[in-house]
Amino acid sequence: MNLALAQPRSPRATIGGLAMAARTADKARAASAGTLGNFKYDCSMDNKLFGFAGIDASEYLAAVTSSADDSGAEALLVRIIAGKSDDEVDAYNRVILEWAANPNGGSC
User: Using one digit for the tens of pLDDT, what is the confidence trace for 29-56?
Assistant: First the structure.
């Protein structure tokens, strides 16, 4: 993915039921390819995903780049959220969706 030419997916787009995961996956692919443009991988909002999942940027990058589609990231995230309650997942997603609705949220 070349983020100098295209936008990453919305923070609302999910992988494995987690908001921000698809956007972060797009940025991870672009970081791996050296095509991030003005975007950043491992930014504050990516770190909300990583913190909730209990992983770091390098672990997510490895999962994302292990497959040509989102299946690597999905396998990682589904395994992680299996240990979380629906309320925990819902609370995390609400935080991301509130940030996404904020016009001053930035282009992280």
Answer: 999 999 999 999 999 999 999 999 999 9
6 within some domain: no
Query: Could you identify the residue written with the tokens 């690597």?
Result: 72
Q: How far apart are CA 88 and CA 97, in angstroms?
A: 14
Distance of alpha carbon 44 from alpha carbon 33, whole angstroms:
21
Residue type, 96: I
CB 76 within 8 A of CB 21: no
pTM of the model: 0.92
62 assigned to some structural domain = yes
Task: Give the up-direction half-sphere exposure of residue 4: CA atoms within 13 A in the CB hemisphere.
Answer: 6
C-beta separation of 1 from 26 below 8 A? yes
Q: Based on the structure, what is the number of domains in the chain?
A: 1
